[in-house]
Sequence to fold (510 residues):
Amino acid sequence: MSQSAQKPHLRLVPPGGAAPGALPGPPRDALEPRETRIEDEPPADPRAAVEEAFRRYAPLVASLGLRITALRDEIDDFVQEVFLRATRGIGGLRHQGATKAWLVSITINVARQRLRVRKLRKLVGLDVPIEYEELVDPALSPEDKLLLTRMYRALDGLPVNQRLAWSLRHIEGERLETVALLCGCSLATAKRRIVAAQKVISEAVGA
Amino acid sequence: MDMETEQIDSQELPARLQRGAAIIRHEVAVRWPQGHVEIALIKLQRRRQQRRYAVAGATLSVVGVGLIGWMGFGGYVRDELAARGLLGPTSPSMSGVASGALAAAPAAAPPKVNVPTVVPLVAPTAPAPARASAEPAGHLLQQRLVPRRQVAAARWVALAGEKRFGEAYGLLRQVPLAQLSDTDDLMLAADVARQAGRPERAVPFLERVVKEHAQEVSAQLAGFSLGKVYLDNLDQPALAAHQFAAVRAMAPGGGLAQDALAREVEAWARAGETSRARDGALEYVRLYPHGRRLAAVRDLGGI
Fold:
């Protein structure tokens, strides 16, 4: 059996037919769907499919969103936003096996939007400072808490796209191709963003 | 894989950055209490419904505005503007009398229109001089908002202590939610909101206690109060039932477990979920054969 026959090609297409570039395709490595049952049929009842996906993946979406944005107070709202967008697009999901990867790409888009709004709020002086130490177990050592705070502050200072690229690469451990796919940019741009972000973060934490 | 990708892939992070990334990866996670996913799902369903209503409302508004325009209001405005010489005579959208009058006028000479003299209500004054020290918008907002928030944060607890809940709630609204992290503060904030007649505003405070202090006894109390708010004030019996179930799951042998189960039965009964209400009632009878609410639970569960 050939390689392509073993691995189904998973991508989103609108119900009326394929429209290249209309919606982001799923990434292919760490975000590759791991469901044991991959079906080639679109979900029969989109609403039920979203609810099932919510039960299964809401904690994953919440944790990913929290790690990337650190907006703990907004995380419930964040998850709801992701699944509301999923409700609108699930009819175009051809393979149920791609649900997880697709939700991750929506999560990244929502995170990007939230981070931009936060930057805007900061610009007009309406941003409420985040206590990063509250994101982790209180039992964590003070040095680790300080390091965490410095890293998030450095990330806060970065342009949103650089922050996303670096977070996906070094926190989530994604491959560069996946980072580029999730960030909606070329591989070269993804690399440039990661390198630029790393320079700033290294200086900020004194690495 | 090209050479540059290979280089970046093999490039290791400095040890300190690796440590920081590992802390974020392993320590920063959402720890939802048991049953929270079901509660969040019900909220998602409600929000979907609200969004459908909003879309329907917006569509109706657009259609309404379009209809009004089509029925002639837009034409009336355009005619008025044209009559005052503010629109060109060749405007294709002109209608009715005004366009007819214009058509009758000689083509070379534009119509003479009496433009009414506008009398200013306020005597003209010299333009205000530019502010010498114009601050950026962010600074101005900060100057105004930050002291107000500090005053509010300092005063609302005192007012709540004096049972002046309405005033306390007014100040509490100005305090950023992130500033309240202590269990006592959050519980007090929820009480203030409820006493001020805004039970729905107590929900975020109670939810935070449940989520952020899940290991403390206060979480059970907050969860129970949350269930009561859903059931008694917000008319969300299904949400309330899940909440009471979550309270029981937190401490099955705790002091609130019996009341939570009784309330769960009541909530399922009110939600029209008779089979779930019956199951809950049977569970109550099994666990608390001499329970305080036995008669009511039997009645609600239909057993």
